[in-house]
Design brief:
It comes from Nocardiopsis lambiniae. The chain is mainly alpha-helical. Among the domains are: 94 residues; 29 residues. Helices cover 66% and strands 0% of the residues. The protein contains five helices and no strands. Helix 1 packs across helix 2 and helix 2 runs antiparallel to helix 3. The termini are far apart. 10% of the residues are buried.
Length: 176
Amino acid sequence: MPLLTVLALMALPFVEVWLMIVVGGWIGVPWTLAVLVSLLVLGVAVLRRAGTRAFRDADEALRSGQQPRGGLLDPLMLMAGGVLLIVPGFLSAAVGLLLVLPFTRPVLRWAFAGWAQRRMRRMQERMEGEFLAQGGSVPGRGPAGASAPADGPGPAPTSRGRVIQGHFEPVRDDED
């Protein structure tokens, strides 16, 4: 998969130039340049507005001690969309517009949340599998990775590792 990503990123400038030539032949060079410059100006405006809003929300969150109101994904999508609008090209501008438009962001947020949940679940399963392969036990699962019975927690898990005996002595500060 990473090789495919690298090849796509290497081909992107060629596709962008090809699209500029096609659009320039279709609507003319002056109009193509005007569209590219207007997309650049729109990208700068989106970046300024998103950056100001993100800074204001982060400042309020730090002052109140709570998480930002709208979350972090919307400002990140706006900033990424603004950067993609600044980059000259029609393909990057189309993706940037998808990230910037208010009616496409909820769909993209939903898709990203689903992707992140699937990724986290696969990562957790892989880590539990590696942990079980090393002889550990995962809470709620037996040593072989089988699920715990549904009718109750069952007996307390037994440790198969080493137990180190010891005791704890509190530190005394009265010698100062």
